[in-house]
Amino acid sequence: MRFEELPTPCYVVDEALVEKNLKILNGVMERTGCKIVLAQKAFSMSSLYPLIGEYLSGTTASGLFEARLGYEEMGKENHVFAPAYRDDEIDEIISICDHIIFNSFSQLEKFKDKALTAGKKVGLRINPECSTQVGHEIYDPCSPGSRFGVTKEHFRGDLLDGVSGLHFHTLCQQNSDDLETTLNAVEEKFGEWLPQMEWINFGGGHHITRTDYDIPLLEACIKRMQEKYGLEVYLEPGEAVALNAGYLITTVLDTLQNSMDIAILDTSASCHMPDVLEMPYRPPLFGSGESGEKPFTYRLGGQTCLAGDVIGDYSFDEPLKSGDRLVFGDMAIYSMVKNTTFNGMALPAIAVKDKDGDCRVVQKFGYEDFKIRLA
């Protein structure tokens, strides 16, 4: 199947572009000896796990279901962190994960012995209280009142018996200068306990495969922890694995006018690209320009009843008409894992574009997928 023959709406993941990202990440691993694992919360397309597993060390999960997916579909190192674990899930989590990271000393004391008895590595998430994000407070784990990680004030060095590593995650789509700033805060507040650890996890949010990312500085940060404290270093990026490697194809259903030209698409910001509203951000659209840049500007919106189900304002060389196909870029990460069936919207099909340019649909969704979620 060719790209232009795919049904809409449809997510398309470009295998060659994913592999390009993986090679960049693998290069960091080879030059530094660090380990990089896939953060499944950003990208959990298991049909590509065999490819990802060729380049990365494994997966990391935010709970039982992601942990099972990484264990069953990639079968390499399997890490997990959650703000709190359920009593009825912890035994299975321990059985399939290698690194169990706890969010508090109370969780550590409750479940540590089980994990250690099973021969698993136990970690503790710390909060360096070092905010480096601007404009994305919803994604800032270091904001006041954050529920993530133990702060210096509440840290208990006397309870570290059996803990072999520390974990922090403070970044979101950021460069390595912010990692360096964070590492300074980690050393300042928790440095006295680093020599007794075996490993440290830098968390995610590292946009390593972005064109302007400072990889040499990242590698310097990694080597700093290795050489100064003898630590094994882990990173768990999600977005970097499939950054700019996916598309969302959609069709124009109708156009109308209300103080400006509007186009209704068969996709939805609310349902199929929720970060457009939550982040918020304006997704790239091939062949378009900024509002007013090209002769014909349209506000693009979805079919749902939400008045704010608007993707953004884009301009075009020609007027849009019913049946036109539009292609949004950078749609592999988060969009696919966070989509919903609000208003009974059908979920987009999922396709893979292979290295030869051929496309294959790997998943379709219909009425039963909507019905079963609410039955």
From TrEMBL:
Its EC number is 4.1.1.96. The lineage of its organism: Bacteria, Bacillati, Bacillota, Bacilli, Bacillales. GO terms for molecular function: lyase activity. This is Carboxynorspermidine decarboxylase. It holds the Pfam family Orn_DAP_Arg_deC. The keyword Lyase applies. Keywords: Decarboxylase, Lyase, Pyridoxal phosphate, Spermidine biosynthesis. InterPro entries: Ala_racemase/Decarboxylase_C (IPR009006), De-COase2_C (IPR022643), Nsp_de-COase (IPR005730), PLP-binding_barrel (IPR029066). Its cofactor is pyridoxal 5'-phosphate.
